[in-house]
Amino acid sequence: MTETAAAREITITRVYDAPRELVWQAWTEPERLAQWWGPPAWTTDPADVRMEVRPGGVFRVTSVSAEGGSAMTVEGVYREVDEPVRLVLEEDGEGAWHDGAVSELTLTDLGDGRTEMAFATSIRTTEEMAGTARAGLAASFDRLARHLS
Amino acid sequence: MADDRLSSTFAALADPTRRAILARLAEGEATVSELAEPFPMTLQGVSKHLKVLERAGLVARGRTAQLRPSRLQAPALKEAADWLAGYRGFWEGSFDRLGDHLAEMQEGSR
Questions:
Q1: Which of A33, A34, B48, B80 could form a disulfide with A44 if both were Cys (CB 3.0 to 4.6 A apart)?
Q2: Would an 8 Å CB–CB cutoff place A119 in contact with chain B?
Q3: pLDDT tens sequence across A91-115
Q4: In this prediction, does ipTM exceed 0.90?
Q5: Burial class, A108, CB count within 10 angstroms (exposed 0-12 / middle 13-18 / buried 19+)
């Protein structure tokens, strides 16, 4: 069941060789965010980035995949904004299979020009998702698919 | 991150009877009456569940006469599993690119 747990609580920590101010700007300026948002082979037009970086402000980013041209939107509201240390972003679950997700970004100045970035997302599961998780089905999809092919 | 088809897949998987039906179909195709056997349920009830699974792309049904045996469709299940793994992958991929972007910003300011 570890796969299931990982899918619902995601924590990623990175250390960047850059001052904290710079990392903060990369998260809060549309032109900069558009340059790194999304996995490789996805692109984001700065015009499709809407950010009102203040508590209650809207966050909306749409990215397009290079192949197939499918679009993906991450949309939510800033719950906390503490420049240049902390951002809390809440996605609502409307139109998604989950019931909303809360992501917390924490930037720590390591004092030597480097910055530690901690990113934690907690996905609130719907009854649907919880049922799937209980059955352990998510973890066995791959095995099932292999069994069938 | 929303995807209509995936949300219908997860909604279809929410029901324990439908998961049991999928587990049975993983062993091979079956007719409605074969599927109904282990459940205290009418054929009509099972047909309703099959329709939900079919709409979600998890099950396909044969065209032969009245029997119309049901088959599991692996790709939809695979896609759902990939999506779960992909949620983390999305951020990992983004943060790799953020590292590159920060390096470029630093070079530009030097």
A1: A34
A2: yes
A3: 876 545 556 789 999 999 999 999 9
A4: no
A5: middle
